[in-house]
Design goal:
about 250 residues, six-stranded parallel sheet, 12 strands, binds NADP nicotinamide-adenine-dinucleotide phosphate
């Protein structure tokens, strides 16, 4: 049977997987939520926008004849990942998550770990600092309780709403980023503290390495819990799973 893949995307790992799948002449669609104005062009057909929760995704899987789903979404995109588990169970389609290990502190890191965005907001209830807030534009409003800080924001697209704090510098740029450039950026803006999600992977790590080099503290937001599912950690492992998927379908 010809495999027809659905890749749930929004990460550089998903883009790498799409490239590998296309190079092998395999059939698949790459799906984006539509959060960024110009998603990176993919070497496979792409679709944009939600499916309508787990039921909508299950319907899509059946209608599009999807034989395998690879969830390569960001570790903080937990709603999509829950929907994928539920929908694949409903539609009886095998699911694999392409995940990356979380970052671990190394000597020289000055991390304060917080359990979630609310924890980061609470930890910022302190006297004025210059804060590099690298949490994506969806979460900016949650930081409104701490307008005393000067914020440095790096966003893929310009903010779509007025910012919830009076003093902010916005840099529109998309990763992957480079440690030396991030160090220079932090020095230029006089950053005192970095707020980051524990995204894992290499593309967003530059700011963490730069903070270490500059002896700056980092508020590190822990990942939300993900549902139980089968996981792979690199593209080769996903391709291996697909190659053996006639016999290897369990979680
Ligand atoms: N959260 C982050 O920090 C972060 C960082 C970098 C990239 N991203 C990427 O941005 C996207 C959205 O992240 P999020 O945290 O807002 O997700 P989320 O909270 O888990 O998802 C919210 C809803 O957005 C839709 N959705 C999410 N990802 C989708 C995809 N790849 N294709 C189609 N629909 C999708 C689904 O809508 P329906 O229920 O209607 O299907 C989902 O229920 C993800 O693709 C993720 O990989 C997220």
């Amino acid at each position: 049977m010809t495999q027809t893949l659905l890749i749930l995307a929004g990460t550089s790992e998903a883009t790498a997987l799409a490239r590998a799948v296309a190079e092998r002449g395999m059939v698949g669609t790459v799906s984006f939520a539509g959060r960024v104005e110009r998603p990176l062009r993919q070497p496979l057909p792409q679709r944009v926008g939600g499916f309508g929760e787990a039921e909508g995704l299950a319907r899509y899987l059946a209608e599009a004849g999807i034989t395998h789903v690879i969830d390569a979404t960001h570790p903080f995109a937990v709603q999509m990942s829950r929907n994928a588990v539920e929908a694949c169970a409903m539609a009886d389609v095998p699911l694999l998550a392409l995940t990356r290990p979380e970052w671990q502190p190394v000597p020289g890191d000055r991390w304060q770990r917080v359990p979630d965005i609310a924890g980061a907001v609470a930890a910022l209830d302190r006297p004025r600092m210059t804060v590099m807030l690298a949490v994506g534009r969806m979460h900016l409003a949650e930081f409104a309780p701490n307008p005393q800080h000067r914020y440095l924001l790096r966003l893929v697209d310009p903010p779509s709403h007025p910012l919830p704090f009076p003093e902010a510098e916005v840099i529109v740029d998309r990763g992957p980023f480079d440690e030396a450039a991030d160090r220079a950026l932090m020095e230029r803006y006089g950053v005192d503290l970095v707020v980051s999600k524990n995204a894992g992977g290499t593309g967003a790590y530059a700011k963490i390495a730069a903070a270490r080099a500059l002896d700056l503290p980092v508020l590190m937001i822990d990942r939300p819990p993900q549902p139980e599912r089968r996981e792979a950690h690199d593209v080769a492992e996903v391709l291996g799973w697909l190659a053996h998927s006639g016999t290897d379908l369990g979680v």
